[in-house]
Design brief:
about 230 residues; mainly alpha; two-stranded antiparallel sheet; 6 strands; about 65% helix; about 10% strand
């Protein structure tokens, strides 16, 4: 039953999205590497930590960012129904805004080597951005049955959104933790993107099951995996 459901609904689009993300990511990575080398934005070897034999181009995150949003943008233009469902345009825009902040912070840090306090304050604002777009958590599954509600108390912010104090706090600290976890993992070639790709694969597979069927979320995860593997 699982495989019938998995194959029968939109798997062709998922394959196209994955392959498109993979190809675009490979091209973008080569392009960004060339730009970084030309501008001499490179990581120089050192005796203490950086033991690579020659200068390595930085700005790799820019290639990931451009690839992901190019492919998602193309699907929004050609097949908006595949991207938008439970995921709304406002939520997607808030994620785009947050990723713009991450890339801007990363580029500034690689060029100017920002102080930890500056990076942390900027990261706090970045983690808060998706919450304003309505990305939150109103409950979690109770292992003994039912769900545990996280939708009270609430704060209404005019024009922006209604914030769930507990649920949004969980998402905020989860996003903050994941950003710093990824930063700490970024010590070996392919380690951070490899682990991120594994996470994306698991999300994609879960969204194809009957219980958690969410093809729009699955498409986002699918594109993200292709981008990571292309990098």
């Amino acid at each position: 039953m699982f495989f019938t459901h998995f194959i029968g609904r939109g798997i062709g689009e998922a394959v196209v999205a994955f392959m498109a993300a993979l190809v675009v990511s490979v091209c973008a990575t080569f392009a960004v590497r060339r730009i970084a080398r030309k501008l001499r934005i490179v990581d120089m070897p050192s005796v203490e930590r950086k033991r690579h034999e020659r200068p390595v181009a930085l700005l790799g995150g820019l290639g990931l960012f451009v690839s992901f949003w190019l492919v998602i943008g193309a699907f929004l233009w050609l097949h908006p129904d595949l991207v938008l469902g439970k995921v709304t345009l406002v939520q997607l825009a808030s994620v785009f805004l947050a990723t713009c902040g991450i890339i801007a912070l990363g580029i500034a840090d690689e060029i100017r080597d920002l102080r930890p306090r500056t990076r942390f304050i900027a990261t706090l604002f970045i983690a808060f951005a998706p919450l304003l777009g309505g990305i939150g958590l109103d409950g979690i599954t109770n292992p003994f049955g039912g769900t545990i509600g996280l939708d009270r108390p609430q704060i209404y912010i005019p024009v922006v959104n209604t914030l769930l104090m507990i649920g949004d706090a969980v998402i905020f600290f989860w996003l903050l933790g994941m950003m710093y976890t990824t930063k700490l993992l970024d010590g070996l070639d392919g380690l951070a993107t490899g682990i991120a790709a594994i996470g994306g694969i698991m999300i994609f597979l879960l969204t194809r099951t009957p219980k958690f069927f969410q093809p729009d979320v699955g498409l986002l995860a699918d594109v993200f995996v292709g981008v990571c593997l292309g990098f």
